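Input.
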Amino acid sequence: LDSLNLSFNLGNELTSESMTLEGVFSNPSHKKFSDMNFKTDLFSSLMASIKRCPSSRFLANQKSGTYINSELTVLGPLGNPGIMLKIYDTYILASGKNVKLNVNASYEDGILSVLDSDVNYGNHKLSHLGGEFDLNTFSGNFNSDFATTFIAHNFTSPIELSVSSSKTTDAKLLSVPEKLDLKLFVNSLKCETFSVDQVLEVDISAGNGRIDFSSGENGIVKGAFFDKNLVVDVAENKRCSFNLAEIGRASCRERV
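Output.
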């Protein structure tokens, strides 16, 4: 086996919808089929594209006018190829809200990279999103410009997210670590009437069925989410508890 060629094309002239797949699997070392290690000896060169495909073909609870446009390229040995994904002018529905996607991403040797991407979800927008995430250690950094609308005011801020974990490099690539730590930095929050030049840091730790978080100087606001309960300590002397399983059930008291 020296090479195997693939070609697949579907199109609808009335809606401009199309799906294409072009690919070549090659055996550059010309090994016999019985001696081949498919993961290392077989190389792939695949290009696939989807244009104006209704999102309802892949996702539930979609509406008319939602489409997916994407391009996928796969290059390299079958066991560890490089992957490039471009999602552009894509509109879908998520939890009843409109989502617009323009994403450029790549994957190589366990590293997921995102470059100059935009994500709109309802009134929230992430623009110029970029960063890297190492699946070997489940750690990485991302940054973006964030914009949202709240109580008739428009807020903007550059944000950074740092992720670290307890995962070791000898663990399986897609295994989820027992503990995950996140740091979110909100820089120079601005709206039409005021601006906050200080950096807001939010620390989040997840593990063992519990999520702990803190923010502000010396953790002035901190809390935890566990067993459908949200507990928040404010200003070191006030504790508020919310039972998320029972809508409207909340209590606040002086912390002992």
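The chain is about 0% helix and 65% strand.
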